[in-house]
Structures are given as structure tokens and as C-alpha cells.
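TOPIC: backbone geometry
CONTENTS: sequence, C-alpha cells:
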Amino acid sequence: MATRKYVIDGQSFSVEIVAGAGALCDVVVNGKRHRVERVVAESRVMPPATVGAPPGATRAVRSAPGEVRAPMAGRVVHLHARPGDAVAAGAPLMVLDAMKMENIIHAPRAGRVHEIAIDAGDTVLQGALLLRLE
């Protein structure tokens, strides 16, 4: 299986599922091998944050002023803004692909992009920090 990159709260993780049979599999995270148990719900592997939630459900995402966080898990397809860019309230900041749908992430308020915590192509979990406005 290919190595995938995930960003959680601004920290990057390189993850590869190496081998698996039944409920156990080997996963290499940032070069370190781990034996883990798969979490299975409704006959498909799901991230732990969604286990027990109905399919397609999302939880409210809390963020500090100026933070833009992922409203759902997905893959960052395109970045519209760069650090230093001035953005208007409602301006598109990036495109997040989730469940084969492209979702535009808009600026919650006017400001200047201070930091972008992810790159195009990254896979993020719901609630992951995407960027900060100043």
C-alpha cells in the first residue's frame, strides 16, 4: 500500500499500512512500525472519531479566533490562499475533497493569512488546523 501523509493539529505524519490479517495489521508511522487493531463499524474501516456516529454525520468543530479547521475529514485538493495574502470574509481559501465531493473552505472573516498548516494533497481529519488568519 502507498504511504499517505496526514496532518493533525499542524503536525505531519507519514503512514503506511504494511501487512494485515483479521483484526490486526502493521502500520509504519514516521518510520516506526506499530502493530494495531483495526476499528470496524458497519462492515467498513472507519476513523476512530466517527465510530458510533451515523454515516455522513459530522461533529461541530471548535476553533480559536482566526483559526480555520477542517469541518470534515478529507483530502486537500487546492489552496487558493498563501501566507501573507489579504482575504475578505467569505473568500475561498481551499478545496477539501470529502466522500467524492469538493467542498470549498471559506474565510470566516476578513484578515491576512498568517500560517497555512497543510499542503495540497494532504489528508486531514475533522477538526485539523488548516490555517490561521491574523
Remarks:
- The longest strand covers residues 11-21.
- Confidence is low (pLDDT under 50) at residues 40-60.
